[in-house]
Amino acid sequence: MKAILVVAFIVSCATITVNASMVGGFKDQDASAPEYHDHAWKAVKGINDQASNNGPYYFVPIKVRDLSLEKMCLKKKPVVKAQTQVVAGINTKLEVLVGESSCKKGEMQVHELTASNCQAKEGGNRAIYQVTIWEKPWENFEQFTVEKVRDVSADEQI
């Protein structure tokens, strides 16, 4: 009888551990949420400051085609993956698909780039960047960390 209770206890603890998310860890979020799209555009400065974008054109967040059976449509979703973590503030980790734009460096400042005035260039270079934003809104604090994940070919489906 004791052995059955011990086994039942171990199984229930294992089930709880597997199904529970790690306290303090990153949690997956809906990458299509508008706030993550806004964060992607805020991160443009950091992405363009990277040595890996040494070309003459700015990189901007670009749209991703969703070819799932349920939704055969073009989504306005430059964010491929979104996660958040509650710390002393909020850490938001995004994977952002960016592409070479038609906006030349030197002709406009990076803080002037918007979705309406700077479009992705057809056939331009593309890449995925990981952007981590640490925010403490009560202190008006925002810090971006940007790291290139990989280049993306023009014909690659994301």
Helix content: 10-25%
The name CATH uses for the topology is Nuclear Transport Factor 2, Chain: A
Number of helices: 3
**Beginning-to-end CA distance, first to last residue:** 54 Å
Spell out the blueprint of helices and strands.
Elements: H1 2-19, E1 27-29, H2 34-42, H3 44-49, E2 57-61, E3 64-66, E4 73-75, E5 79-87, E6 89-104, E7 126-136, E8 141-152
Antiparallel strand pairs: 1-5, 2-6, 3-4, 5-6, 6-7, 7-8
Could you characterize what this model shows?
This protein is of the alpha+beta class and 158 residues long. The protein has a single domain, classed as Nuclear Transport Factor 2, Chain: A (Roll), CATH 3.10.450. It is built from three helices and eight strands, in the order H-E-H-H-E-E-E-E-E-E-E. The strands form two sheets. Strands 1, 2, 5, 6, 7 and 8 form a six-stranded antiparallel beta sheet that branches. The longest helix has 18 residues.
